[in-house]
Protein backbone atom coordinates (compact mmCIF):
# COMPACT_ATOMS: atom_id res chain seq x y z
CA UNK A 1 0.00 0.00 0.00
CA UNK A 2 3.04 2.27 -0.09
CA UNK A 3 3.25 5.22 -2.50
CA UNK A 4 5.82 4.83 -5.24
CA UNK A 5 8.74 7.19 -4.44
CA UNK A 6 11.63 7.88 -6.80
CA UNK A 7 14.79 9.79 -5.93
CA UNK A 8 16.64 10.84 -9.08
CA UNK A 9 20.33 11.17 -8.25
CA UNK A 10 22.55 9.14 -5.93
CA UNK A 11 24.80 11.91 -4.62
CA UNK A 12 24.92 13.09 -0.99
CA UNK A 13 21.42 14.61 -1.14
CA UNK A 14 19.70 11.60 -2.69
CA UNK A 15 21.52 9.11 -0.49
CA UNK A 16 20.82 11.09 2.69
CA UNK A 17 17.12 11.14 1.85
CA UNK A 18 17.28 7.41 1.15
CA UNK A 19 18.85 6.63 4.53
CA UNK A 20 16.31 8.79 6.36
CA UNK A 21 13.34 7.21 4.56
CA UNK A 22 14.69 3.71 5.17
CA UNK A 23 14.93 4.48 8.90
CA UNK A 24 11.18 5.21 8.77
CA UNK A 25 10.47 2.00 6.81
CA UNK A 26 9.31 4.00 3.80
CA UNK A 27 10.09 2.26 0.47
CA UNK A 28 11.81 4.23 -2.31
CA UNK A 29 14.02 3.78 -5.35
CA UNK A 30 17.16 5.82 -6.11
CA UNK A 31 18.09 6.16 -9.79
CA UNK A 32 21.76 6.99 -10.41
CA UNK A 33 23.27 7.59 -13.86
CA UNK A 34 26.73 6.26 -12.89
CA UNK A 35 27.75 2.64 -12.57
CA UNK A 36 28.14 1.21 -9.08
CA UNK A 37 31.61 2.22 -7.84
CA UNK A 38 34.17 -0.46 -7.11
CA UNK A 39 36.18 -0.63 -3.89
CA UNK A 40 39.22 0.62 -5.81
CA UNK A 41 37.30 3.63 -7.12
CA UNK A 42 36.03 4.50 -3.65
CA UNK A 43 39.60 4.41 -2.32
CA UNK A 44 40.82 6.97 -4.86
CA UNK A 45 41.26 10.60 -3.78
CA UNK A 46 38.19 12.75 -4.28
CA UNK A 47 37.05 16.19 -3.22
CA UNK A 48 36.95 16.87 0.52
CA UNK A 49 33.69 18.08 2.06
CA UNK A 50 33.52 19.91 5.37
CA UNK A 51 30.23 19.22 7.13
CA UNK A 52 28.77 21.88 9.40
CA UNK A 53 26.77 21.99 12.59
CA UNK A 54 23.19 22.97 11.85
CA UNK A 55 23.15 21.34 8.42
CA UNK A 56 25.35 18.46 7.19
CA UNK A 57 26.31 17.18 10.63
CA UNK A 58 22.68 17.37 11.76
CA UNK A 59 21.70 15.19 8.80
CA UNK A 60 24.45 12.68 9.65
CA UNK A 61 23.17 12.57 13.24
CA UNK A 62 19.57 12.07 12.08
CA UNK A 63 20.80 9.16 9.95
CA UNK A 64 22.35 7.68 13.10
CA UNK A 65 25.81 7.71 11.50
CA UNK A 66 27.86 10.04 13.67
CA UNK A 67 29.94 7.25 15.20
CA UNK A 68 30.72 5.81 11.77
CA UNK A 69 31.34 9.25 10.25
CA UNK A 70 33.97 10.53 12.69
CA UNK A 71 36.69 7.92 11.95
CA UNK A 72 36.42 8.85 8.24
CA UNK A 73 36.98 12.53 8.88
CA UNK A 74 40.74 12.72 9.41
CA UNK A 75 42.38 12.73 5.99
CA UNK A 76 42.25 16.52 5.71
CA UNK A 77 42.74 18.62 8.82
CA UNK A 78 40.70 21.75 9.55
CA UNK A 79 43.81 23.87 9.17
CA UNK A 80 43.04 26.79 6.84
CA UNK A 81 45.80 28.96 5.36
CA UNK A 82 45.46 32.05 3.19
CA UNK A 83 48.53 32.99 1.15
CA UNK A 84 49.51 35.59 -1.38
CA UNK A 85 50.64 34.80 -4.93
CA UNK A 86 54.13 33.98 -3.67
CA UNK A 87 52.81 31.33 -1.30
CA UNK A 88 53.52 33.35 1.85
CA UNK A 89 50.90 32.52 4.48
CA UNK A 90 49.12 35.68 5.64
CA UNK A 91 46.44 34.19 7.86
CA UNK A 92 45.70 30.86 9.52
CA UNK A 93 42.66 29.42 11.22
CA UNK A 94 41.44 26.08 12.48
CA UNK A 95 37.95 24.63 12.55
CA UNK A 96 38.55 23.22 16.05
CA UNK A 97 36.54 20.10 15.29
CA UNK A 98 33.38 21.93 14.27
CA UNK A 99 33.81 21.36 10.52
CA UNK A 100 35.20 17.85 10.05
CA UNK A 101 36.33 16.94 6.53
CA UNK A 102 35.33 13.77 4.70
CA UNK A 103 36.11 12.73 1.15
CA UNK A 104 33.19 12.68 -1.25
CA UNK A 105 33.87 9.01 -1.96
CA UNK A 106 33.85 8.06 1.71
CA UNK A 107 30.67 10.03 2.39
CA UNK A 108 28.93 8.30 -0.50
CA UNK A 109 30.11 4.88 0.68
CA UNK A 110 28.99 5.59 4.24
CA UNK A 111 25.49 6.57 3.17
CA UNK A 112 25.14 3.75 0.62
CA UNK A 113 26.01 1.28 3.36
CA UNK A 114 22.71 2.15 5.03
CA UNK A 115 20.50 2.02 1.95
CA UNK A 116 19.19 -1.39 0.84
CA UNK A 117 21.12 -2.49 -2.25
CA UNK A 118 17.88 -3.28 -4.06
CA UNK A 119 16.75 0.33 -3.59
CA UNK A 120 19.45 1.75 -5.90
CA UNK A 121 19.27 1.38 -9.67
CA UNK A 122 22.66 2.05 -11.23
CA UNK A 123 23.23 3.13 -14.84
CA UNK A 124 19.91 4.98 -15.08
CA UNK A 125 20.35 8.35 -16.78
CA UNK A 126 17.06 10.25 -16.82
CA UNK A 127 15.98 11.42 -20.26
CA UNK A 128 12.71 13.11 -19.33
CA UNK A 129 10.01 13.45 -16.69
CA UNK A 130 6.35 14.06 -17.44
CA UNK A 131 2.95 13.71 -15.85
CA UNK A 132 0.86 10.75 -16.93
CA UNK A 133 -2.51 9.37 -15.92
CA UNK A 134 -1.03 7.26 -13.14
CA UNK A 135 1.56 9.70 -11.76
CA UNK A 136 4.97 11.05 -12.78
CA UNK A 137 6.53 9.13 -15.66
CA UNK A 138 10.32 8.84 -15.70
CA UNK A 139 11.90 7.89 -19.02
CA UNK A 140 15.44 6.46 -18.81
CA UNK A 141 15.65 5.59 -22.49
CA UNK A 142 15.95 1.86 -21.99
CA UNK A 143 13.06 1.75 -19.51
CA UNK A 144 10.15 3.83 -18.21
CA UNK A 145 8.48 3.81 -14.80
CA UNK A 146 5.67 5.72 -13.08
CA UNK A 147 5.84 7.13 -9.54
CA UNK A 148 3.59 9.00 -7.13
CA UNK A 149 6.42 11.18 -5.81
CA UNK A 150 9.59 12.14 -7.69
CA UNK A 151 12.42 13.99 -5.95
CA UNK A 152 14.97 15.60 -8.25
CA UNK A 153 18.39 15.35 -6.62
CA UNK A 154 20.10 15.23 -10.00
CA UNK A 155 22.42 18.21 -9.72
CA UNK A 156 23.21 21.31 -11.71
CA UNK A 157 21.75 20.12 -15.02
CA UNK A 158 18.73 18.44 -13.43
CA UNK A 159 16.38 16.78 -15.88
CA UNK A 160 13.63 16.87 -13.26
CA UNK A 161 13.98 20.66 -12.89
CA UNK A 162 14.14 21.29 -16.62
CA UNK A 163 11.10 19.14 -17.35
CA UNK A 164 7.76 20.70 -18.23
CA UNK A 165 6.67 19.86 -14.67
CA UNK A 166 8.78 22.57 -13.02
CA UNK A 167 11.16 25.06 -14.70
CA UNK A 168 11.71 24.21 -18.37
CA UNK A 169 12.89 27.75 -19.17
CA UNK A 170 15.34 28.20 -16.27
CA UNK A 171 18.91 27.24 -17.11
CA UNK A 172 22.13 27.53 -15.08
CA UNK A 173 24.07 30.66 -16.05
CA UNK A 174 27.81 30.93 -16.59
CA UNK A 175 29.65 32.79 -13.82
CA UNK A 176 32.79 33.92 -15.66
CA UNK A 177 34.85 31.36 -13.70
CA UNK A 178 36.46 28.01 -14.47
CA UNK A 179 38.14 25.35 -12.38
CA UNK A 180 40.92 22.92 -13.25
CA UNK A 181 41.20 20.00 -10.83
CA UNK A 182 44.49 18.16 -10.34
CA UNK A 183 45.44 15.45 -7.83
CA UNK A 184 48.91 14.42 -6.62
CA UNK A 185 49.21 11.41 -4.32
CA UNK A 186 51.86 10.65 -1.66
CA UNK A 187 52.83 14.29 -1.51
CA UNK A 188 54.79 14.11 1.76
CA UNK A 189 57.22 11.47 0.57
CA UNK A 190 57.52 12.54 -3.06
CA UNK A 191 57.45 16.33 -2.70
CA UNK A 192 58.02 17.22 0.96
CA UNK A 193 58.72 20.89 0.19
CA UNK A 194 55.26 21.22 -1.37
CA UNK A 195 53.65 19.32 1.50
CA UNK A 196 55.22 21.79 3.92
CA UNK A 197 53.94 24.74 1.88
CA UNK A 198 50.30 23.63 1.65
CA UNK A 199 50.07 22.16 5.16
CA UNK A 200 47.77 19.41 6.39
CA UNK A 201 44.43 21.00 5.54
CA UNK A 202 43.37 23.71 3.09
CA UNK A 203 45.68 26.25 1.44
CA UNK A 204 44.58 29.20 -0.70
CA UNK A 205 46.96 31.37 -2.74
CA UNK A 206 44.95 34.33 -4.03
CA UNK A 207 45.66 37.11 -6.49
CA UNK A 208 44.90 38.58 -9.90
CA UNK A 209 41.32 37.32 -9.49
CA UNK A 210 42.54 33.73 -9.53
CA UNK A 211 43.19 31.14 -6.82
CA UNK A 212 45.42 28.11 -6.41
CA UNK A 213 43.69 25.99 -3.78
CA UNK A 214 45.02 22.81 -2.19
CA UNK A 215 43.18 20.35 0.05
CA UNK A 216 44.81 17.27 1.55
CA UNK A 217 43.03 13.95 1.21
CA UNK A 218 43.27 10.13 0.94
CA UNK A 219 46.58 8.53 -0.07
CA UNK A 220 48.43 11.52 1.38
CA UNK A 221 47.16 13.46 -1.62
CA UNK A 222 46.88 17.12 -2.44
CA UNK A 223 43.82 18.00 -4.46
CA UNK A 224 44.47 21.21 -6.39
CA UNK A 225 41.74 23.50 -7.65
CA UNK A 226 42.99 26.14 -10.07
CA UNK A 227 40.12 28.59 -9.90
CA UNK A 228 40.41 30.99 -12.83
CA UNK A 229 38.42 34.13 -13.61
CA UNK A 230 38.03 33.94 -17.38
CA UNK A 231 35.09 35.51 -19.20
CA UNK A 232 35.19 33.04 -22.11
CA UNK A 233 32.63 30.34 -21.38
CA UNK A 234 34.46 28.02 -23.79
CA UNK A 235 37.89 28.65 -22.28
CA UNK A 236 38.94 25.00 -22.32
CA UNK A 237 38.47 24.76 -26.07
CA UNK A 238 39.72 28.26 -26.87
CA UNK A 239 42.92 27.77 -24.85
CA UNK A 240 43.57 24.38 -26.44
CA UNK A 241 43.13 22.48 -23.18
CA UNK A 242 40.06 20.41 -24.06
CA UNK A 243 40.90 16.77 -24.68
CA UNK A 244 44.49 17.17 -23.50
CA UNK A 245 46.34 15.51 -20.60
CA UNK A 246 47.16 17.65 -17.57
CA UNK A 247 50.84 17.92 -18.48
CA UNK A 248 49.89 19.82 -21.62
CA UNK A 249 48.23 22.55 -19.54
CA UNK A 250 51.20 23.79 -17.54
CA UNK A 251 52.68 26.03 -20.22
CA UNK A 252 49.32 27.65 -20.94
CA UNK A 253 48.66 28.22 -17.25
CA UNK A 254 52.11 29.44 -16.25
CA UNK A 255 53.13 31.47 -19.29
CA UNK A 256 50.01 33.56 -19.79
CA UNK A 257 49.98 36.84 -17.89
CA UNK A 258 46.19 36.74 -17.62
CA UNK A 259 46.37 33.34 -15.89
CA UNK A 260 49.08 32.24 -13.40
CA UNK A 261 52.28 33.76 -14.81
CA UNK A 262 52.40 36.42 -12.06
CA UNK A 263 52.21 33.85 -9.25
CA UNK A 264 55.48 33.23 -7.42
CA UNK A 265 57.98 30.39 -8.09
CA UNK A 266 56.78 28.21 -5.19
CA UNK A 267 53.13 28.34 -6.22
CA UNK A 268 54.09 27.80 -9.85
CA UNK A 269 56.14 24.78 -8.77
CA UNK A 270 53.05 23.39 -7.06
CA UNK A 271 50.99 23.85 -10.23
CA UNK A 272 53.72 22.45 -12.50
CA UNK A 273 54.19 19.39 -10.29
CA UNK A 274 50.46 18.76 -10.15
CA UNK A 275 50.18 18.97 -13.93
CA UNK A 276 53.07 16.53 -14.39
CA UNK A 277 51.87 14.04 -11.78
CA UNK A 278 48.08 14.36 -11.93
CA UNK A 279 46.33 11.02 -11.40
CA UNK A 280 43.05 12.26 -12.94
CA UNK A 281 40.86 10.58 -10.33
CA UNK A 282 37.64 12.14 -11.67
CA UNK A 283 38.11 11.00 -15.27
CA UNK A 284 38.47 7.53 -16.71
CA UNK A 285 40.17 8.85 -19.85
CA UNK A 286 43.06 10.47 -17.94
CA UNK A 287 42.49 13.87 -19.54
CA UNK A 288 42.55 17.28 -17.88
CA UNK A 289 39.57 18.01 -15.65
CA UNK A 290 38.53 21.55 -16.57
CA UNK A 291 35.01 22.86 -16.24
CA UNK A 292 33.11 26.13 -16.18
CA UNK A 293 31.19 27.19 -13.07
CA UNK A 294 27.45 27.85 -13.32
CA UNK A 295 24.79 29.01 -10.88
CA UNK A 296 21.01 29.31 -10.71
CA UNK A 297 19.39 32.66 -9.90
CA UNK A 298 18.98 33.16 -6.15
CA UNK A 299 15.42 32.48 -5.08
CA UNK A 300 14.76 30.24 -8.05
CA UNK A 301 11.22 28.97 -7.45
CA UNK A 302 8.47 27.10 -9.25
CA UNK A 303 4.72 26.78 -8.63
CA UNK A 304 4.46 23.91 -6.18
CA UNK A 305 3.29 20.73 -7.91
CA UNK A 306 1.75 17.55 -6.56
CA UNK A 307 4.15 14.66 -6.58
CA UNK A 308 7.40 16.33 -7.67
CA UNK A 309 10.04 18.50 -6.00
CA UNK A 310 13.76 19.26 -5.94
CA UNK A 311 16.66 19.47 -3.51
CA UNK A 312 20.37 20.29 -3.51
CA UNK A 313 22.03 21.72 -6.61
CA UNK A 314 18.98 20.86 -8.68
CA UNK A 315 17.08 23.50 -6.67
CA UNK A 316 19.72 26.08 -5.72
CA UNK A 317 23.02 25.71 -7.56
CA UNK A 318 25.63 28.17 -6.25
CA UNK A 319 29.37 28.67 -6.50
CA UNK A 320 31.48 26.29 -4.37
CA UNK A 321 31.94 27.71 -0.88
CA UNK A 322 31.62 24.69 1.40
CA UNK A 323 27.85 25.09 1.77
CA UNK A 324 26.53 23.18 -1.22
CA UNK A 325 26.66 19.68 0.25
CA UNK A 326 25.56 20.95 3.66
CA UNK A 327 22.46 22.62 2.26
CA UNK A 328 21.69 19.58 0.11
CA UNK A 329 21.82 17.26 3.13
CA UNK A 330 19.72 19.71 5.14
CA UNK A 331 17.16 19.71 2.32
CA UNK A 332 17.04 15.92 2.56
CA UNK A 333 16.54 16.08 6.31
CA UNK A 334 13.59 18.47 6.06
CA UNK A 335 12.00 16.65 3.14
CA UNK A 336 12.31 13.30 4.92
CA UNK A 337 10.33 14.72 7.82
CA UNK A 338 7.57 15.97 5.52
CA UNK A 339 7.40 12.62 3.74
CA UNK A 340 7.44 10.76 7.06
CA UNK A 341 4.53 12.80 8.40
CA UNK A 342 2.44 12.18 5.28
CA UNK A 343 3.29 8.48 5.30
CA UNK A 344 2.28 8.08 8.95
CA UNK A 345 -1.01 9.85 8.26
CA UNK A 346 -1.63 7.54 5.30
CA UNK A 347 -0.95 4.41 7.37
CA UNK A 348 -3.31 5.57 10.11
CA UNK A 349 -6.07 6.44 7.61
CA UNK A 350 -5.93 3.19 5.65
CA UNK A 351 -5.68 1.02 8.75
CA UNK A 352 -9.36 1.74 9.43
CA UNK A 353 -10.48 0.35 6.06
CA UNK A 354 -10.32 -3.23 7.25
CA UNK A 355 -10.73 -5.84 4.53
CA UNK A 356 -11.05 -3.41 1.64
CA UNK A 357 -9.54 -4.66 -1.60
CA UNK A 358 -5.77 -4.31 -1.76
CA UNK A 359 -5.82 -2.19 -4.94
CA UNK A 360 -8.47 0.13 -3.55
CA UNK A 361 -6.55 0.53 -0.30
CA UNK A 362 -3.40 1.35 -2.23
CA UNK A 363 -5.13 3.99 -4.31
CA UNK A 364 -6.80 5.49 -1.26
CA UNK A 365 -3.54 5.48 0.68
CA UNK A 366 -1.63 7.16 -2.14
CA UNK A 367 -4.30 9.84 -2.39
CA UNK A 368 -4.07 10.56 1.34
CA UNK A 369 -0.26 10.62 1.17
CA UNK A 370 -0.18 13.15 -1.66
CA UNK A 371 -2.85 15.33 -0.08
CA UNK A 372 -1.05 15.50 3.27
CA UNK A 373 2.49 15.85 1.87
CA UNK A 374 3.25 19.57 2.24
CA UNK A 375 5.78 20.19 -0.50
CA UNK A 376 4.95 23.88 -0.73
CA UNK A 377 6.13 24.64 2.82
CA UNK A 378 9.26 22.54 2.31
CA UNK A 379 10.05 24.40 -0.92
CA UNK A 380 9.47 27.87 0.52
CA UNK A 381 11.67 27.19 3.55
CA UNK A 382 14.38 25.58 1.41
CA UNK A 383 14.40 28.54 -0.96
CA UNK A 384 14.64 31.05 1.88
CA UNK A 385 17.68 29.22 3.27
CA UNK A 386 19.23 28.99 -0.18
CA UNK A 387 18.79 32.72 -0.84
CA UNK A 388 20.59 33.58 2.39
CA UNK A 389 23.43 31.16 1.66
CA UNK A 390 23.64 32.29 -1.95
CA UNK A 391 24.00 35.93 -1.00
CA UNK A 392 26.67 35.09 1.57
CA UNK A 393 28.46 32.99 -1.04
CA UNK A 394 28.52 35.89 -3.49
CA UNK A 395 30.02 38.09 -0.79
CA UNK A 396 32.72 35.52 0.08
CA UNK A 397 33.63 34.84 -3.54
CA UNK A 398 33.72 38.58 -4.17
CA UNK A 399 36.29 38.96 -1.38
CA UNK A 400 38.41 36.15 -2.79
CA UNK A 401 38.36 37.23 -6.43
CA UNK A 402 37.39 40.88 -6.30
CA UNK A 403 40.84 42.43 -6.80
CA UNK A 404 44.50 41.78 -7.60
CA UNK A 405 45.32 41.97 -3.88
CA UNK A 406 42.48 39.78 -2.63
CA UNK A 407 44.76 37.77 -0.34
CA UNK A 408 45.48 40.81 1.79
CA UNK A 409 41.88 41.99 1.80
CA UNK A 410 40.63 38.51 2.65
CA UNK A 411 43.20 38.29 5.45
CA UNK A 412 41.97 41.57 6.90
CA UNK A 413 38.45 40.16 6.99
CA UNK A 414 39.61 36.98 8.72
CA UNK A 415 41.62 38.91 11.28
CA UNK A 416 38.60 41.08 12.03
CA UNK A 417 36.52 37.92 12.51
CA UNK A 418 39.14 36.47 14.83
CA UNK A 419 39.33 39.66 16.90
CA UNK A 420 35.57 39.78 17.20
CA UNK A 421 35.41 36.13 18.26
CA UNK A 422 38.22 36.55 20.78
CA UNK A 423 36.39 39.51 22.28
CA UNK A 424 33.48 37.16 22.86
CA UNK A 425 35.78 34.50 24.29
CA UNK A 426 35.31 32.19 21.33
CA UNK A 427 37.59 30.68 18.73
CA UNK A 428 37.13 32.16 15.27
CA UNK A 429 35.89 29.82 12.58
CA UNK A 430 36.94 30.17 8.92
CA UNK A 431 33.59 30.71 7.29
CA UNK A 432 35.06 31.76 3.95
CA UNK A 433 36.27 28.26 3.07
CA UNK A 434 35.77 27.24 -0.56
CA UNK A 435 35.20 23.65 -1.42
How would you describe this protein?
The longest helix is centred in the last third of the chain and has 27 residues, at 324-350. 38% of the residues lie in helices and 21% in strands. 47% of the residues are buried. It folds into 2 domains: 5-34 and 123-172 and 296-401, FAD/NAD(P)-binding domain (3-Layer(bba) Sandwich), CATH 3.50.50.60; 77-100 and 173-295 and 405-435, D-Amino Acid Oxidase, Chain A, domain 2 (2-Layer Sandwich). It has a 7-stranded mixed beta sheet, sandwiched between helices. It has a 5-stranded parallel beta sheet with strand order 7-2-1-11-17. Strands 8-9-10 form a 3-stranded antiparallel beta sheet, with no helix packed on it. The model is unreliable at 427-435 (pLDDT under 50). It is of the alpha/beta class. The protein has helices at 12-23, 39-43, 56-62, 66-69, 104-112, 159-162, 187-190, 192-198, 235-238, 250-255, 265-277, 313-316, 324-350, 358-372, 375-401, 406-423; strands at residues 5-8, 29-32, 48-50, 79-83, 89-94, 101-103, 120-122, 128-132, 135-139, 144-147, 149-152, 173-184, 202-207, 210-217, 221-229, 289-295, 308-310. It contains 16 helices and 17 strands. Residues 5-185 form the FAD-binding domain. Keywords: FAD, Flavoprotein, Monooxygenase, Oxidoreductase.
Amino acid sequence: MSPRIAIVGGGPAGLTLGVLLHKQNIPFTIFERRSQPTAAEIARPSGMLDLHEGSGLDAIAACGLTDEFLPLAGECSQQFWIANRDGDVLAAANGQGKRPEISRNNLGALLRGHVPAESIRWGHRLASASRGDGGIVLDFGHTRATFDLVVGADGAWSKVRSSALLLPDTKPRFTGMHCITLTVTHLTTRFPHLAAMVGSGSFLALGRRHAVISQRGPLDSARLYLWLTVADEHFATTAGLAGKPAAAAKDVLLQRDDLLQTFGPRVQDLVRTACDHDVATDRDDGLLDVRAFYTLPHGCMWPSQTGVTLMGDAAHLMLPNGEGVNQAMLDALHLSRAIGKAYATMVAATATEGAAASEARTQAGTQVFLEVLDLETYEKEMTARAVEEGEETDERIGRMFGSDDAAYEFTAVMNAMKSKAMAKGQEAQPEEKPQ
